[in-house]
């Protein structure tokens, strides 16, 4: 008599072949164009923190392809980890072999000089600088980059007067900029007084910025004289963003200055603390797109 099978057990069919083991992929044999595409998706930081250590072939591909390093973004690398970000930044610039067109990340004077000497094709540069050692960033060196169009400088200062002439220095060094952003942040331990910004003098002058279309100044103390200098020196300016500034008394703006502001497509200016803010829709001059924008009038 045949013994009955338990419900949880089945006969094995000897005619059914056992499943073959999964195919082992040789990732080091990836075609070069596919590997480059993968690296471009990862970005410089991820390549240097792991991808280029997978195997010799990947390492060779990462180091030997300058196209991977045309745009270097190290904004997620902690700026206080000086040894880490500086080693990564220098390696990225070296791998670009003179083809780097954009850099974003921490910066000090030593690296700025290193970057300028080895990346003369730079068109865009976004720098963050922490003045813990009370050292002013030497932006005048940017005049050695003839193709530079976009500059973004974010600064945290601990010393008095360090940023007073910085905006003017950038303008003098890069008169052909199309976009300029500067951000000034005071640390809680800062010794700054209210004269943190640049344009608090009665008369102000900046070089002619004949191609500048976008200007943003954050944490900058702008005056009516400073605003006038900017508008007079930037004939094609379309967007101006200066959301704060204790020295800009907008109620003192005359009709001529208001008319100059009204020609811009986008304007953000601080308003007097003792006056109520309100916005007025304004038509743009001929030559601009027909759209409305908001500008605070006081």
What does the model show?
With 298 residues, the chain is of the alpha/beta class. The protein has a domain at 71-260: Alpha-Beta Horseshoe (Leucine-rich repeat, LRR (right-handed beta-alpha superhelix)), CATH 3.80.10. The protein is built from eight helices and ten strands. The strands form two sheets. It has an eight-stranded parallel β-sheet, with helices on one face. Strands 9-10 form a two-stranded antiparallel ribbon. β2 (102-106), α5 and β3 (124-131) form a beta-alpha-beta unit. The longest helix is centred in the N-terminal third of the chain and has 15 residues, at 82-96. It is elongated and about 95 Å long. The relative contact order is 0.07.
Write the layout of secondary structure elements.
Elements: H1 32-42, H2 44-48, H3 56-63, E1 71-73, H4 82-96, E2 102-106, H5 109-118, E3 124-131, E4 150-157, H6 166-173, E5 179-186, E6 214-218, H7 224-233, E7 239-241, H8 255-262, E8 266-268, E9 279-282, E10 293-296
Parallel strand pairs: 1-2, 2-3, 3-4, 4-5, 5-6, 6-7, 7-8
Antiparallel strand pairs: 9-10
Helix pairs in contact: 4-5
Domain F-box: 27-74
Pfam families: F-box-like
Protein name: F-box domain-containing protein
């Amino acid at each position: 008599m045949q013994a009955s099978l338990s419900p949880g057990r089945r006969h094995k069919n000897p005619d059914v072949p056992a499943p073959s083991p999964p195919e082992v992929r040789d990732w080091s044999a990836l075609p070069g164009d596919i590997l480059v595409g993968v690296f471009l998706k990862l970005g410089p930081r991820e390549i240097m923190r792991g991808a280029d250590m997978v195997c010799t072939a990947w390492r060779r591909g990462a180091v030997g392809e300058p196209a991977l390093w045309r745009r270097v973004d190290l904004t997620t690398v902690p700026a206080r980890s000086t040894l880490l970000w500086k080693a990564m930044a220098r390696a990225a610039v070296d791998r670009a072999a003179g083809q780097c067109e954009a850099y974003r990340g921490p910066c000090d004077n030593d690296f700025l000089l290193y970057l300028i000497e080895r990346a003369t094709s730079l068109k865009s540069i976004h720098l963050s600088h922490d003045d813990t050692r009370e050292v002013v960033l030497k932006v005048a060196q940017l005049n050695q980059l003839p193709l530079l169009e976009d500059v973004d400088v974010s600064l945290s200062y601990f010393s008095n007067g360090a940023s007073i002439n910085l905006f003017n220095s950038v303008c003098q060094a890069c008169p052909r900029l199309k976009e300029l952003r500067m951000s000034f942040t005071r640390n809680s331990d800062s010794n700054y007084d209210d004269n943190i910004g640049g344009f608090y003098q009665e008369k102000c002058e900046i070089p002619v910025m004949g191609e500048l279309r976008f200007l943003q100044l954050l944490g900058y103390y702008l005056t009516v004289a400073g605003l006038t200098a900017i508008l007079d020196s930037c004939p094609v300016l379309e967007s101006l963003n200066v959301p704060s500034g204790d020295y800009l008394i907008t109620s003192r703006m005359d009709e001529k200055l208001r008319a100059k502001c009204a020609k811009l497509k986008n304007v953000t200016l601080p308003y007097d603390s003792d006056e109520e803010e309100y916005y007025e829709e304004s038509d743009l001059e001929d030559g601009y797109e027909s759209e409305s924008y908001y500008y605070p009038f006081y």
